[in-house]
C-alpha cells in the first residue's frame, strides 16, 4: 500500500495528489497514514508532560502512594462508577433507540429529540440541579416530604451514577440509533415471517448488527465517566478526577501525576476491551436508512410512553426546571460589577466551539479514513490513542498545555489557537468514531464501480465516498461542537485574557454564589447546543 | 484552598439553596466573598442601640452604640474626599451595618503612587464580581491604568503559575486563599514587597513580605440570643461537647470547605485522636446544613441554638434581618478561632514589578479596605480599619498558631470525617 509510483515525477500535480491519497486497490497510502499518525501523535503529546512529571516523583513516594488504601479506594470507586454508568446507559439507551426507530410509538420525532437532548446539559449544571432538587432541604425533597416520600441521600455512589447516566446515556442512544437506522429492516421482517417472535428476532438478527454501534457509544460513556470531574465533586464521591483535584489542591503535583497515569492505565484497559468486544463496524451510510416501524407496540404503548416520559422528566425536566426557577427567583439587584451577562459570551462560545468542531473534524478525517480503510495493526495503533485525551481530566490536559505553551510556544500561550488545540485533543475521538464508521460503511464496490466507469480516484472519492460519509462527518462535528460548548476545566486554564465564554461566566457567577445569574447562560448554552443536536438527528434521517 | 476549589461545587450547590430560601445572600462560599450583601439592609439606625452589651462576645449587639459614635460627621467628610471622579463613598457598601462608619485611619489612594500601564492580574477564586469592581474603580481613577484579569479557582491559578514558572505572564497573583499564595512563594516565584507597602498590616499576614493579606475571614460561633447567653459559649471549642451549647441543637455544615478547614486546624493543633473524640462527642447534638449561611440563618430562626460558621454569614443574616436574635461568639487560640485570608503577591518574573507593587499597595488603601469591610463584611487587615457589626478588630482576635498553607491538606480530614460518619 505504500506510495507506489508517487515519485515517478512526470505526472501532473492533481494526479500526484490523488496518488498521495489512495492506491489503486483503495487502500490508503503512506501519506494518509503519515498524516493520521501525525494527528495521533499530536493529540497524545500532553501525555508526555505527565511522563516528564512522573520522573520527578521519588520511588519511595510513588510506592507509598500507590500502595495506600486511598489509591485502591479511588481505583475501585472509579471502575465501579464506569461499570455501572456504562451498563445503565446501555440498558436505557438501547431500548429508547429501538422504541424511537423500530416501533409505531406515537410522536416518535418528538421523543427522539427529547431523549437525545440531555447530552447538551453540562454535568456540573445537571448535578447542581439534582442536588438542589433532591439534596438536604432540596426543593423536591421538601415538597415530597409531607406526603411521606423520603428521598435517600443524593450524595455518594448512587447520586453520582444516577446523574452521570442521566446526562451521558444519549451517547449510546445516538450510536445505537444510527446503527438501527442503517439496519436493513427486511431481514427482521423475514425473520418474523418465519414465525420468530420479535424478541428472538431482535436477539438473533438485530443485536449482532447493532452491537458495534452500542459498543461505540458505551466507549464514549465509559471514558466520559472516567474523565468527568463535576459530578463526582458535587456528589462527594472519590474517583480519580476528584482525587487528582484534591492532590492539585494541596499542590502535590507529583501525586496528581501518578493518579493521572493510573487513570490513563484504566483508559488503556477500556480501549483494549472495547476493541475486543466490538471488532466489526456496522454497515453504515451506504445502505438506505430506515425509520419504518416494524414493531407494533399494541398495549405496550402505554408503558413505553411512561418510560419515555419518566426519562425526559428526570434528565431534562429537573435541570431545566431548576434553571428556570433560579432565573425567575433571581430578579434584579444582582448587578455587582464584573457579573453582568453579555450576549457576546454566547457568540464567543459558539464561535470557538464552531472552529473547534471544524478543526477537529478535519484532523479526524485522515485518522478515520486510514484506520477505516486498512486492516493493518498500524491503523488500530493510530486510531486508539486518539481516545486518550478524551479520558484525561480537563485540568490535567490544561496544565500540560500550560507547560508546553509557556516553554515551547509562548506566542501561542493564552491564545485561541492553543485553546482550540486543547479541544481537538479532548474531543477528537467523537469525530474519529462517527467518521470512521461511515468510512467503513461505504461499500468499496461502489467506489470500484465508479472507477470502472472511468472516474479518477479523486473524483470517485468526491462523488461517491464523500457524499456517503458526510452525515458521519457532520454528526461528529456536531458532537464536538456541543461538548466544546460545555467544556470547563481546560477552558478556564487556557482562556485568553478577557475572553469570556458561557461556561467561564457560569463558573464565575457560581463561584460567587450567584445562582440566579448562572441560569440564563446555562439555558443559552443548552439552547445553542440543542441546535447542534438537531443537526445530528436530521443528518441521520436523510 | 482545598476548600476553595474543591468546594466550588459544594458551595455552589449550597449557594443554590440559599438563593432559593433566602432573600439576600447568594454568597455561600467560605471564602472572603466580596460581593455586596447589603442590598436589602433597610437602614434602621440604632435598632440595637438600646440593647445592652453583654460581655465581650456580644459584638453584634454592640453595633448600634459602638458604631454610631460620632459618625455622621465623619461620613460626610469622607465622602467629600475624592480621587479624580471617584469618591470615597464609591468604595463603601450600603445597608444598615454600614450606615455609620468611624473615621478610617489608613493611607488614602491619594497618598499612593499613581497606577499607570497595563497589569496582568491572575485572580484566584472569589473574584465574584467585587474584586473586578474594585479594579474597575482603580481604572476610573487612573485613565492610563488597565488591569487584564485572568480568573480561575485558587488552586488552579497557583498550579498554573507553578507550571508556567519563570515564563508566567502574570504580574500580580491575587487569591482568596492563603495556601495558594504560600505555595507560589515557596517556589520562589514571588517578589518581596517593600516594608513600606505592608507597614500597616500585622506581621502574621505578610509572611516574609512574599505576599500580603488584604482581607480575612474568621471562624465564629453564631448563637441565638433567645436561647443562650454569651457565657453559655465556652472559651475553648474543645469544651463544647459538655457545654450548655450542646444541650440545645448545634448546626454545622460538614460538606462545606470552611468547616473542613476548621477540622483540619483542629487536627493540626489538637491531634487526630482528640479531633476524632471531639467529632464523636458533638454528633448527638448536631443538625446538618448544606452550608454556613443556612446554618447561621437556622440559628437566627431558633431551629438550632448555635452553630459553626464563618463570621460574615451572621453579618449577612443580620443585614437582611435586623431583628434576628443572632449574635457571634469567638473562641480563643484554638481551631474555633481560625482566621484565613485573601491576599496578593507580586510575581518575581514580572517585568512590571513597580506597577504590580503599587497595585498591591492600593489593595491596602483606606478605600480598598473599606470596600472589603463594607461590601463583603470581611475583616480588613489594615489595623486602622474596623470590621462592620461592632466585631473586635483583627488584632483583638486570638487565632491558633498554625501555618495557613497547611490547611490545604484536607484529605486526612475528609477521611476522618468519613470514618466517624459525619460525611
Describe this structure in words.
The complex is a heterodimer of chains A (542) and B (423). Chain A has 542 residues and is mainly α. In chain A, 74% of the residues lie in helices and 0% in strands. Helix content of chain B is 35%, strand content 15%. Mean pLDDT of chain B is 79; it is low at 1-59 and 61-80. Chain B has helices at 2-6, 8-21, 63-68, 71-80, 88-91, 130-141, 154-164, 178-186, 257-270, 272-282, 292-301, 311-320, 353-363, 366-375, 411-419, and strands at residues 82-83, 86-87, 117-124, 145-152, 172-175, 190-191, 212-224, 250-252, 286-288, 306-307, 309-310, 326-329, 339-347, 379-380.
Write the layout of secondary structure elements.
The complex is a heterodimer of chains A (542) and B (423).
Chain A: H1 13-21, H2 30-44, H3 46-54, H4 59-67, H5 69-102, H6 108-116, H7 123-134, H8 139-144, H9 157-182, H10 185-193, H11 198-227, H12 230-234, H13 240-249, H14 253-277, H15 301-330, H16 343-373, H17 377-383, H18 388-391, H19 394-408, H20 416-441, H21 444-452, H22 457-486, H23 489-494, H24 502-511, H25 515-541
Helix pairs in contact in A: 2-16, 3-14, 3-19, 5-6, 5-9, 5-11, 7-9, 7-15, 9-11, 10-11, 11-14, 13-14, 15-25, 16-17, 16-20, 16-22, 16-25, 20-22, 21-22, 22-25, 24-25
Chain B: H1 2-6, H2 8-21, H3 63-68, H4 71-80, E1 82-83, E2 86-87, H5 88-91, E3 117-124, H6 130-141, E4 145-152, H7 154-164, E5 172-175, H8 178-186, E6 190-191, E7 212-224, E8 250-252, H9 257-270, H10 272-282, E9 286-288, H11 292-301, E10 306-307, E11 309-310, H12 311-320, E12 326-329, E13 339-347, H13 353-363, H14 366-375, E14 379-380, H15 411-419
Parallel strand pairs in B: 3-4, 3-5, 8-9, 8-10
Antiparallel strand pairs in B: 1-2, 5-13, 6-13, 7-11, 7-12, 7-13, 7-14
Helix pairs in contact in B: 7-8, 9-10, 11-12
Amino acid at each position: 500500500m505504500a506510495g507506489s509510483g508517487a515519485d515517478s515525477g512526470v505526472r501532473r500535480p492533481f494526479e500526484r495528489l490523488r496518488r498521495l491519497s489512495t492506491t489503486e486497490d483503495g487502500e490508503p497510502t503512506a501519506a494518509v497514514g503519515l498524516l493520521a499518525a501525525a494527528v495521533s501523535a499530536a493529540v497524545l503529546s500532553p501525555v508526555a508532560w505527565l511522563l516528564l512529571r512522573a520522573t520527578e516523583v521519588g520511588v519511595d513516594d510513588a510506592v507509598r502512594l500507590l500502595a495506600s488504601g486511598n489509591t485502591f479506594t479511588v481505583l475501585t470507586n472509579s471502575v465501579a462508577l464506569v461499570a455501572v454508568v456504562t451498563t445503565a446507559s446501555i440498558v436505557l439507551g438501547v431500548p429508547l433507540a429501538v422504541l424511537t426507530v423500530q416501533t409505531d410509538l406515537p410522536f416518535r420525532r418528538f421523543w427522539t429529540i427529547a431523549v437525545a437532548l440531555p447530552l447538551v446539559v453540562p454535568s456540573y449544571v445537571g448535578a447542581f440541579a439534582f442536588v438542589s432538587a433532591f439534596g438536604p432541604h432540596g426543593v423536591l425533597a421538601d415538597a415530597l416530604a409531607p406526603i411521606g416520600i423520603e428521598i435517600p441521600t443524593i450524595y455518594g455512589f448512587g447520586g453520582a451514577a444516577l446523574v452521570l447516566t442521566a446526562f451521558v446515556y444519549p451517547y449510546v442512544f445516538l450510536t445505537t440509533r444510527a446503527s438501527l437506522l442503517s439496519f436493513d429492516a427486511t431481514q427482521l421482517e423475514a425473520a418474523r415471517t418465519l414465525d420468530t417472535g420479535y424478541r428472538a428476532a431482535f436477539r438473533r438478527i438485530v443485536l449482532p448488527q447493532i452491537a458495534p454501534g452500542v459498543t461505540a457509544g458505551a466507549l464514549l460513556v465509559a471514558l466520559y465517566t472516567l474523565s468527568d470531574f463535576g459530578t463526582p465533586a458535587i456528589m462527594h464521591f472519590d474517583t480519580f478526577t476528584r482525587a487528582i483535584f484534591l492532590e492539585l489542591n494541596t499542590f502535590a503535583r507529583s501525586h496528581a501525576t501518578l493518579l493521572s497515569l493510573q487513570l490513563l492505565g484504566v483508559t488503556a484497559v477500556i480501549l483494549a476491551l472495547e476493541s475486543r468486544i466490538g471488532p466489526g463496524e456496522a454497515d453504515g451510510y451506504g445502505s438506505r436508512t430506515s425509520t419504518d416501524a416494524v414493531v407494533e407496540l399494541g398495549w405496550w404503548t402505554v408503558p413505553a410512553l411512561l418510560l419515555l416520559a419518566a426519562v425526559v422528566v428526570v434528565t431534562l425536566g429537573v435541570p431545566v426546571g431548576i434553571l428556570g426557577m433560579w432565573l425567575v427567583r433571581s430578579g434584579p439587584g444582582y448587578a455587582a460589577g464584573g457579573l453582568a451577562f453579555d450576549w457576546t459570551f454566547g457568540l464567543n462560545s459558539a464561535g470557538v466551539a464552531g472552529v473547534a468542531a471544524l478543526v477537529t473534524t478535519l484532523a479526524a478525517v485522515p485518522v478515520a479514513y486510514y484506520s477505516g480503510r486498512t486492516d493493518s495493526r498500524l491503523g488500530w495503533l493510530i486510531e486508539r490513542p486518539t481516545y486518550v485525551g478524551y479520558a484525561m481530566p480537563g485540568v490535567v490536559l490544561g496544565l500540560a498545555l500550560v507547560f508546553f505553551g509557556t516553554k515551547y510556544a509562548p506566542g501561542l500561550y493564552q491564545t485561541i489557537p492553543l485553546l482550540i488545540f486543547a479541544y481537538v485533543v479532548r474531543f477528537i475521538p467523537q469525530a474519529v468514531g462517527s467518521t470512521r464508521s461511515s468510512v467503513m460503511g461505504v461499500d468499496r464496490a461502489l467506489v470500484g464501480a465508479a472507477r470502472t466507469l472511468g472516474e479518477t480516484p479523486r473524483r470517485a472519492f468526491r462523488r461517491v465516498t464523500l457524499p456517503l460519509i458526510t452525515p458521519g462527518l457532520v454528526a461528529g462535528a456536531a458532537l464536538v461542537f456541543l461538548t466544546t460548548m460545555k467544556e470547563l476545566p481546560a477552558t478556564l486554564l487556557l482562556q485568553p485574557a478577557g475572553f469570556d465564554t458561557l461556561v467561564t461566566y457560569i463558573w464565575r457567577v457560581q463561584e460567587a454564589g450567584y445562582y440566579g445569574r448562572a441560569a440564563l447562560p446555562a439555558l443559552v448554552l443548552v439552547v445553542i447546543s440543542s441546535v447542534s443536536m438537531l443537526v445530528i438527528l436530521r443528518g441521520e434521517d436523510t | 484552598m482545598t476548600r476553595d476549589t474543591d468546594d466550588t461545587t459544594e458551595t455552589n450547590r449550597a449557594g443554590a439553596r440559599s438563593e432559593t430560601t433566602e432573600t439576600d445572600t447568594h454568597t455561600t462560599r467560605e471564602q472572603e466573598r466580596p460581593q455586596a450583601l447589603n442590598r436589602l439592609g433597610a437602614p434602621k439606625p440604632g435598632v440595637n442601640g438600646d440593647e445592652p452589651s453583654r460581655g465581650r462576645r456580644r459584638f453584634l449587639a454592640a453595633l448600634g452604640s459602638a458604631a454610631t459614635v460620632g459618625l455622621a460627621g465623619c461620613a460626610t467628610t469622607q465622602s467629600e474626599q475624592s480621587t479624580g471622579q471617584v469618591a470615597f463613598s464609591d468604595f463603601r457598601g450600603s445597608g444598615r451595618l454600614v450606615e455609620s462608619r468611624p473615621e478610617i485611619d489608613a493611607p488614602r489612594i491619594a497618598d499612593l503612587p499613581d497606577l499607570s500601564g497595563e497589569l496582568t492580574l491572575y485572580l484566584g477564586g472569589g473574584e465574584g464580581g467585587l474584586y473586578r469592581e474594585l479594579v474597575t474603580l482603580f481604572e476610573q481613577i487612573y485613565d492610563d491604568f488597565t488591569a487584564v484579569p485572568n480568573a480561575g479557582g485558587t488552586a488552579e491559578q497557583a498550579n498554573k503559575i507553578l507550571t508556567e514558572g519563570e515564563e508566567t505572564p502574570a504580574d500580580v497573583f491575587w487569591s482568596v486563599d492563603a495556601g495558594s499564595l504560600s505555595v507560589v512563594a515557596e517556589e520562589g516565584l514571588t517578589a518581596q514587597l517593600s516594608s513600606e507597602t505592608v507597614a500597616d498590616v500585622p506581621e502574621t499576614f505578610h509572611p516574609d513580605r512574599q505576599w500580603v493579606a488584604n482581607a480575612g475571614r474568621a471562624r465564629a460561633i453564631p448563637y441565638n440570643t433567645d436561647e443562650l447567653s454569651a457565657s453559655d459559649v465556652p472559651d475553648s471549642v474543645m469544651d463544647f461537647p459538655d457545654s450548655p451549647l450542646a444541650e440545645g441543637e448545634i448546626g454545622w455544615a460538614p460538606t462545606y470547605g470552611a468547616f473542613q478547614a476548621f477540622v483540619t486546624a483542629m487536627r493540626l493543633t489538637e491531634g487526630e485522636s482528640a479531633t476524632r473524640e471531639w467529632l464523636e462527642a458533638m454528633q448527638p447534638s448536631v443538625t446538618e446544613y448544606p452550608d454556613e449561611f443556612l446554618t447561621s440563618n437556622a440559628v437566627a430562626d431558633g431551629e438550632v441554638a448555635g452553630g459553626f460558621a464563618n463570621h460574615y454569614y451572621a453579618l449577612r443574616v443580620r443585614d437582611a434581618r435586623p431583628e434576628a436574635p443572632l449574635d457571634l461568639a469567638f473562641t480563643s487560640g484554638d481551631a474555633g478561632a481560625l482566621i484565613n485570608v485573601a491576599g496578593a503577591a507580586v510575581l518575581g518574573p514580572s517585568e512590571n514589578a513597580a506597577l504590580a507593587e503599587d497595585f498591591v499597595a492600593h489593595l491596602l488603601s483606606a478605600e480598598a479596605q473599606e470596600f472589603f469591610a463594607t461590601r463583603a463584611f470581611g475583616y480588613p487587615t489594615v489595623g486602622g480599619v474596623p470590621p462592620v457589626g461592632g466585631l473586635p478588630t483583627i488584632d483583638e482576635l486570638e487565632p491558633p498558631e498554625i501555618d495557613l498553607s497547611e490547611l490545604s491538606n484536607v484529605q486526612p480530614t475528609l477521611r476522618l470525617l468519613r470514618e466517624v460518619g459525619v460525611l
